[in-house]
Specification:
single chain, MetI-like fold
């Protein structure tokens, strides 16, 4: 049992690393996608829209396996499973976060956009000083929910040999010929122990934001 707990804790640490690395990547790429979709140049906006739809409508596991096989050939060197997992998970969920950003951006009153023009702000100043500070706070709870979803999606990356908790449980069962009920139950409990408190924090954040908006 001690060996199993140790293996699951190592898997949990890998899961946390993959989750937060992928979430950081998804936040950056999602914002870039959201801004590029607003560009009035069709040869930029249209391909970005098609790319987002393609990524969203294809399975994460297929994207991860494809990247696991293709990226080493493309760059001419092997990549760790954790790196590929972060790239695959981050790219996949960046398309969802792009829609979250888009809803926040579209929620900024038109007068704020006009004020930026009247003040002769550069595009960078407009986005950094006026639009994004108003667009992002209302969507933070939704982004928090996606963070929890990404945490629970990490076991999919077992397909590329990422040593997360489910793979650790499978390896333990294969090496000890143990019954799977206890290892899989512990995996579920570990996920619950992290996901449930996180969901409570997201709800708390949402309530506080609602109170601030209602004040």
């Amino acid at each position: 049992m001690d060996e199993l707990i140790a293996a699951l804790l190592r898997g949990l640490w890998t899961t946390v690393q993959a989750t937060f690395g992928a979430f950081a990547l998804a936040c950056v790429l999602g914002l870039i996608f959201a801004m590029l979709r607003r560009v009035r140049i069709k040869w930029i906006a249209v391909p970005i829209a098609w790319l987002i739809e393609f990524i969203r409508t294809t399975p994460l596991v297929v994207q991860a396996v494809f990247m696991w096989m293709a990226l080493p050939r493309l760059i001419g060197m092997p990549l760790p499973a954790l790196t590929v997992g972060i790239l695959a998970l981050g790219l996949h969920y960046s398309t969802y976060l792009s829609e979250v950003y888009r809803s926040g951006i579209e929620g900024v009153p038109r007068g704020q956009w006009e004020a930026a023009v009247a003040l002769n702000f550069s595009p960078a100043q407009k986005w950094l000083r006026i639009i994004l500070p108003q667009a992002i706070p209302p969507v933070l709870p939704v982004m928090g929910n996606y963070l929890i979803v990404m945490f629970k999606e990490v076991p999919v990356l077992m397909a590329i040999t990422l040593g997360e908790m489910l793979l650790a449980a499978n390896s333990y069962i294969a090496s000890t010929f143990a019954d799977g009920i206890v290892p899989y139950s512990l995996v579920a409990l570990f996920f619950l122990a992290v996901s449930y408190p996180s969901s409570l924090l997201v709800r708390l954040m949402e309530r506080r934001l609602n109170r601030q908006r209602g004040a």
